[in-house]
Amino acid sequence: MAHHPRILTTASGTAVPKFGLGCAPLGNMFRARSDEQVEAVLEAAWEAGVRHFDTAPHYGLGLSERRLGRFLATKPRSEFVISTKVGRLLREDPAWDGRSTDPEGFAVPAQLRRSWDFSQHGVRRGLEDSLERLGMDRVDILYLHDPEHSGDSRAVHEGMTALSRMRDEGVVTFVGAGSMDPGTLISAVETGLADIVMVANRYTLLDQGAVPGLAAACRRHGTLMVAAAVFNSGLLARSPAKGATFDYQVASEDVLARARSIESVCVAHGVELPAAAVQYPLLDPAVAGVVVGADSPDQIRQNLTRFGAAIPDALWDDLDQQGLVPRTGR
Predict the structure, then answer these.
(1) 203 is catalytic
(2) What are phi and psi of 267, to 5 degrees?
(3) Distance (Å, whole) CA 249 – CA 75
(4) Of 106, 116, 223, 246, which residue has the fewest beta carbons closer than 10 angstroms?
């Protein structure tokens, strides 16, 4: 059995909160947002008690980290938990034409480009750059970000080895990997070096790709999970409607029909579909928390209400018995 604690407590004595704010929207994901709009979302999150923030250099070519860092500079460092990611170094793009925007879905100028690097040097340099953008001297959790997309078969092993050394040196408190690919996360867990992994889109009411393989590996090694993108990019955030997105594409009729079936069971128990979506991963004791994005102060408050909504145990049993959503974590 592994050495990792079941409850992760940061250097300042703060346990990793069960609800976190996903900060990709702060980097202008899919559309531009003003500094004022971002500030309003962060202020609403803080006022509502959110103390767990997840970002990455990838989000808006560093814009998310800079905006989040400016906001958190006004808050006591001991009161929040922050995670960021390594693997994509940001470098000036000499070929930038002065006009074009980022081709990877963020509404920002493409004057920087991403360069894959999971080597010891690359991981250290990535954290140094992130700390500079954040205006901080440390982060609580550091993840390898999508190592499977780098084309380097050694990325997970090299990257986790580098992260574990930085953890041993006290540069970061907890280390792991973040990805939509359960196989990649299993590889990270099987190194025996990961405290926590972030699984995106694969531990949801509609997609249990993280079960049983990743969940079993985490139990074996004492590794915790954080579930991100629990709404599968939109479909589960409201009553399922034609044209809604699932995994960043328009949902198929089959997926839409399954979402509606799940919703009908939720309604029969007096529960909103999004409330069930945000709480479902937490049935598994290996899931330390969920991370949810928000685009407005209202969305922050709405998501926290959903997170705190009472859900009868019978709802999970009904979903399981009807073959719609397996009851996990038992």
Answers:
(1) no
(2) -60, -40
(3) 37
(4) 116
Nearest one of 84, 14, 57, 19 to 289, comparing CA atoms: 19
Assess if residue 299 is contained within a domain: yes
The secondary structure of residue 6, as a DSSP letter, is S
- Assess if residue 288 is contained within a domain: yes
Helix axes 182-190, 155-168, angle to 10 degrees: 50
d(CA 175, CA 242): 39
Mean pLDDT per block of 10 residues along the chain (330 residues) reads: 52 79 96 97 98 98 98 96 98 94 96 97 98 96 97 96 95 96 97 97 96 93 96 94 92 96 98 98 94 96 97 97 89
Domain hosting residue 127, numbered range: 19-240+272-311
pLDDT value at position 14?
64
- Phi, psi (5° rounding) for residue 114? -90, 135
CATH number of 94's domain: 3.20.20.100
User: What pLDDT does residue 330 have?
Assistant: 65
How far apart CA 230 and CA 199 sit, in angstroms, is: 10
Tokens 């926290």 belong to: 304
Dihedral sign (CA 287, 182, 190, 291): negative
pLDDT value, residue 67: 98
Is residue 153 a part of any domain in this protein?
yes
Quick one: which of 68, 67, 69, 61 has its CA closest to 108? 61
State how far the Cα of 245 lies from the Cα of 228, in Å rounded to an integer. 16
Global pTM value: 0.94
For residue 9, being part of any structural domain is answered with no
